[in-house]
């Protein structure tokens, strides 16, 4: 782990960005890696679980649900009393986001996630609308299996239907076996407002970051992310992390400065937002990193998740049904008390299925 460093003011070469109502800034706040990670854990509700039924708050920044039941495991890491069917709670919905990935988001914010990545290119936008029109014509107001709609449209690949998510006119339902398309009215939100709010939401959860990070997270070309970034840059404050310049919402700077590591055990699934960025900072050792973080092309033979202990990733884990295997980085480093706490957290995962849950250490 990186040692805790205190904040300082450091001069950065190029001019800084301004917050609303402030003069031009020429310095950035230097932040240690532990503070950055502690800030993210706090704002993502990993440091302290939310009360039961706070599912929309837990999914405020979007929870990827591409791996079977990853979304409900991410909810469990943030909220008390999560059940296997909590992903179907009326306060949240599933959408296609960032290139067609399945996401759980707050129901009232679905339009921000879908239209927030709507293309500015008129030809691309028109193509999405034509595809959505065709899909909705087949659906005729019904909830239909995506495979049925894709087949009727003759789409190759069948995943091309996922572009309709960016229209804002469809939601989805994925139960880890099949996926359905749900027609909905186009959200009553201005597209530019959606883009700006989505960028703010990204920076609150995953800042300090860059416009390139925003582009990757939203699945839009970097030139488009830059336009959105420029629209909110007066709201940003410069931050230095590991001698690199990043930005954060100025309103969040004080929380970043006060961030402290949390105590607790969390099992995070592949693609949890906490592990989306800065994987080299999360697990500095490149030999250990693939054991816990979602780089499938370098996977050690299983889909990895991360075991977070007091803010530090100390192991990977995987699941087959209700059977969980823990892959510690250093077996002798995890004491008996921590080992029992990890097992308790694994046994508490809200996964339905036959048989009793079990734990195995690799």
Features:
alpha+beta; five-stranded mixed beta sheet; four-stranded mixed beta sheet; 21% strand; disordered N terminus
What does this structure look like?
With 362 residues, this protein is α+β, with helices and mostly antiparallel strands. The chain has helices at residues 33-43, 55-58, 70-76, 110-115, 122-139, 146-153, 191-206, 211-218, 222-232, 253-257, 279-282, 336-347; strands at 8-11, 27-31, 63-64, 92-97, 101-106, 144-145, 170-174, 179-183, 236-241, 244-249, 265-268, 305-309, 312-320, 323-328, 358-361. It folds into three domains: 8-45 and 206-257, no CATH class; 55-183, no CATH class; 265-361, no CATH class. Helices cover 30% and strands 21% of the residues. It has a five-stranded mixed sheet. It has a four-stranded mixed sheet with strand order 1-2-9-10. The chain has a three-stranded antiparallel sheet with strand order 3-5-4. A hairpin with a 3-residue loop joins strand 4 (92-97) and strand 5. It is globular. The two termini are 23 Å apart.
